[in-house]
Amino acid sequence: MKYVSLSDSTVRRLPFYLAMEEYVARRFDEEFFFMWQVDPTVIFGRNQLIEREVNIDYCRNNGIAVYRRKSGGGCVFADMSNIMFSYIVSSDDVVTTFSSYTERVAAMLRSLGLNAESTGRNDVLIDGRKVSGNAFYHIPGRSIVHGTMLYDTDLAHITQAISPSEAKLESKGVDSVRSHITTLSRHIDMDIEGFKDYARRYMSDGELVLTADDILSIEEMSQPYYSDEWILGKNPLCGVSRHCRIEGVGEFQVDIELKGRRVHKINIAGDYFLLSDIDAKLLDRLKGAFYTREALADAIGDIDVGSIISGLDKSQLLNILIE
Q: Measured at the alpha carbon of residue 178, what is the angle toward residues 274 and 67, in degrees to the nearest 5?
């Protein structure tokens, strides 16, 4: 696996690194890994509602940037003491990709003498507490896994800037975000640059250096991430609003605008893992259907729901959409 390096040491805003992942995945064919750091930033999932997940006033008052990513999953906080990992591979199998990567990260931590394990949908734990959470993004033939590696991050910002639901916290059996996480600095006698050097040597055995022209292309690719339309989302005015959590799948917030008892607009927000284009392959098919269980079932038809939202089946989807 090759390590991706930039030709300069400039610290850039988060959208650059998200675009960098996609640029490398689309332009180069090999397996890649790289690390990056940003100034204080909240990163929330493709299908999350910003007002439910982010304390916007706190972020604004404390100079914390807020961006939406293309991958699913939950909300995370990053700063210069929080190392972000990116992994790019040729694969269409989300389960294999995730398990292979998170186990590789856990093995790297175990090689430092830590009691680390990969567990759940996307976490790496040390002594039962989360030190790394990851999300998945897929383009044709290529998969991207990216996530946190908490070295010594600002726990006050994490607990104040991110506002997870009570249901999510209860499902994890914890009282707060703070009691659920740990940091590497509590467990290793190694500074952050020393750890980054160790992780790079353990995870990769070659290098791809991006040129100044590559950087300009990535900057251009990153521009849509800055738009209000992308950051704020596209929830319809609600005629129906439903919220639930399915263990092992995720949290769901469904907002539906009805016209004449038919679905006019629909959005399914949440921290679930998105594997495919939910608009084209699912939500667009529901538009125009009568808002009854039978009509929604007919509109869904024989779609493999689990190939769009990881771990979800048709019956569960119907339960989310309508009583």
A: 40
Residues contacting residue 304 through CB under 8 Å, at least 6 positions apart: none
Q: Structure pTM?
A: 0.79
**DSSP per-residue string spanning 28-42:** --S-EEEEE--SSEE
Query: How far is 165 from 305, CA to CA, in rounded Å?
Result: 25
Q: Model confidence over 89-113: pLDDT tens digits?
A: 998 777 788 888 999 999 999 999 9
Length of the chain equals 323
Query: Which DSSP helix (H) or strand (E) runs through 103?
Result: helix 94-110
Q: How far is CA 22 from CA 98, 211, 214, 265, 319, in A?
A: 17, 16, 12, 29, 34
Contacts of 206 (CB under 8 A, 6+ apart): 1, 2, 3
**What does the alpha-carbon distance between residue 249 and residue 316 come to, in Å, rounded to a whole number?**
10
Q: Cβ contacts of residue 158 below 8 Å, gap of 6+?
A: 77, 177, 178, 181
Instruction: Please check whether residue 73 is in contact with residue 45, taking contact to mean a CB–CB distance below 8 angstroms.
Output: yes
What is the rounded average pLDDT of the residues 285-300?
Answer: 93
Residue type, 165: S
Q: Which two tokens stand for residue 37?
A: 């750091």
